[in-house]
Amino acid sequence: MSLWANLEASEGFDITILNAARPGTLAARRFDLLFVSNGKASQILQNASDFVEHILYPNELYPRKPVRHVTLRLAGHNLSEVVVSDSDDSQRPGDFVIHVSPSAMADANPGLAFGSAVQRAMARVWLWDGRGAAPKWLVNAMMEYLTLSAGFASDTVPLQPGGSCWREDEPARTARFLKYCEERRSGFMARLNRAMRKHWSEIMVDVALGSPSRQLCSAYQSRIRQRTEFSGSRSVLGLSRAM
């Protein structure tokens, strides 16, 4: 195992970079060459953190989650998820470990894959979760929203009118509804995250929005229907012209 520590890369927390991939493997070599030797891993992590903090903690009215030390670790084996972040608050309050799957190094664009993985992980690090009581699907959707906002997630998920705006099995779709809520009620994500600091209740979403979420959901679905109908009419028009 290789170890690099950078204690000056962050103003607010310490950073440790670990390479636990098998020595000599493509993943280990690429990680060392592309992200460790030049200090880029620490820079990417810090930039990801700054982006998330700017959205979730815009000023002193939003109590910051205690983050004292983040370890970024390239795992020794492929993981079921690209990134898994965890902390043991009972033993080390404010200490977090981010595990990146070595499969990210085999991607055609390792820089994009690694950056996206770290962005998702830092979103999870900074998100409150109601002390574990908040629905996992909602936290995952909030992670997806923050990753989408940073430009690391695709914004081309097909529109599907009807149904619920809260898709428990599709965080990417729920993230796009969160994006709509943020556009309509600026600061929504920061307010929702703040509300999830110590506990969880479904009413928190409505309070953060300042109005019933079902109203925004109806408006969102209406917009999707309009876009779908417009797209369909353009396709028919194009076909008629071709004929």
Instruction: Outline the low-pLDDT stretches.
Output: 5-10, 232-237
The Rg value, from CA coordinates, equals 20 Å
Strand content: 5-15%
The count of strands amounts to 5
**Distance between the terminal alpha carbons, to the nearest Å?**
65 Å
Number of helices: 8
What do these coordinates show?
The chain has helices at about 25-35, 40-55, 110-125, 135-150, 170-185, 190-195, 205-210, 215-240; strands spanning about 1-5, 15-20, 70-75, 85, 95-100. It is an alpha/beta fold and about 240 residues long. It has a five-stranded mixed sheet with strand order 1-2-3-5-4, with helices on one face. Helix 3 crosses helix 4. The longest helix has 30 residues, at about 215-240. The model is unreliable at about 5-10 and about 230-235 (pLDDT under 50).
Question: Tags for this entry?
Answer:
Neutral Protease, domain 2; 5 strands; globular; 243 residues; five-stranded mixed β-sheet; alpha/beta; 49% helix; 2 domains
How are the SSEs ordered, and which strands pair?
Elements: E1 2-6, E2 14-19, H1 26-36, H2 40-56, E3 69-74, E4 83-86, E5 95-100, H3 110-126, H4 136-149, H5 171-184, H6 188-195, H7 203-209, H8 213-242
Parallel strand pairs: 2-3, 3-5
Antiparallel strand pairs: 1-2, 4-5
Helix pairs in contact: 2-3, 3-4, 4-5, 6-7
